[in-house]
Amino acid sequence: MTSVAVRRTHVPLALAVLVAGAAWLVAWFVNQPAADWLAYDVLRLDRGSHLGDAVAFFLLDVPKVLLLLTGIVTLVSFLRSFVSPERVRAALAARGVLPGTMAAAGFGVVTPFCSCSAVPLFIGFVEAGVPLGVTFAFLVASPMVNEVALVLLWGLFGPAIALAYMASGLVVAVAAGLLIGRLGLECYVEDYVWRIHAGGALSLARPTIEERLREAWRSTAEIVGKVWPFVVAGIGVGALIHGFVPTDLVVSLGGRDNPLAVPALVALGVPLYSNAAGTIPIVEALIGKGLPLGSALAFMMAVTALSVPELVILRRVMKPRLIAAFVGTVTIGILVVGYGFNLLIA
């Protein structure tokens, strides 16, 4: 009787999880056609026009990013309820500063997250007590380098360029993590982040699956509820740039005759938003129009690792001085990569 009662109490929960998962998948797959339908059929904007492309981009990316945030935060919150903070610290921090930083950067490479959706994992690392510099190595590597981008670069430009891209991204991530770790900037993480304990009340005993799921959803509602207005605002800026900045302008800014080409492209890439795989077609088009490879990679890294949506989300967990340190460190690394590739590949 007891087992039957237990099963009955879990049937509604299991059904709710299945329905929520199915709804998430449906929303994900209809997002693209729905955005196009709203922009070009309902609003009657011209396909290929500046305004039409900007509106379509905004209608596509707002639900996409919010879906990613909701799904990833829920999944991460649920999974981390099975792993104690002590085990996380042991896996990363206890290795030593350099090995832990390198391990976090390597973990970032194999997690196919965009800059916005990597932030919840960053928060989870901070909550678990992982050193700040180690968490920053992950935060930089995850959007900057991923396996999809590596495969696409391998197919378009060959293994040498793909591996050089991966190595340069890892170097930037590890260097940023080591530098920020040495600066001792933990006091510039927002106070409420330190008050969130991984697992919360569930760490007192063996929680049931239902308790884990409810706590995961509570954590998701809290985090997404804090950041969604900033995400929408950041994507709005990115949509304007996406729709109204022509690729010819990017090429003219990034030509070899311009000694400030690399920093100009980095500055141009910051307001944009995409993941590394999503920028590959843009990079291919820009290189095809004559943009040097180093400038193109610097532009791609700026788009993926220094996007406005990521920075506005980070503002909810970091104080301005820590964000400035993050932006400055990553920018210097990207500039070195851009100028280095341009010098090596004339």
Describe this entry's structure for a reader.
This protein is mostly helical and 346 residues long. It has one domain (31-344). The protein has 16 helices and no strands. Helix 14 runs antiparallel to helix 16. The longest helix is centred in the first third of the chain and has 41 residues, at 2-42. The protein is globular. The termini are far apart.
Concise overview:
By secondary structure, this protein is mostly helical. It has helices at residues 2-42, 50-80, 85-92, 97-109, 115-127, 132-144, 147-157, 159-183, 191-195, 209-244, 247-253, 261-269, 276-288, 293-305, 308-314, 320-344. The chain contains 16 helices and no strands.
Note the topology.
Layout: H1 2-42, H2 50-80, H3 85-92, H4 97-109, H5 115-127, H6 132-144, H7 147-157, H8 159-183, H9 191-195, H10 209-244, H11 247-253, H12 261-269, H13 276-288, H14 293-305, H15 308-314, H16 320-344
User: Which structural class do you get from the secondary structure elements?
Assistant: mainly alpha
Strands, count? 0
- First-last Cα distance: 76 Å
Q: Number of DSSP helices? A: 16
Low-confidence stretches: 1-9, 197-204
Overall spatial form: globular
Helix content: over 70%
Largest sheet data: none
How confident overall, as mean pLDDT?
A: 76
State the domain count: 1
Give helix and strand order, one letter per element, not per position. HHHHHHHHHHHHHHHH
Radius of gyration, in Å, reads: 21 Å
Strand content: under 5%
Features:
mainly alpha; globular; disordered N terminus; 16 helices; 346 residues
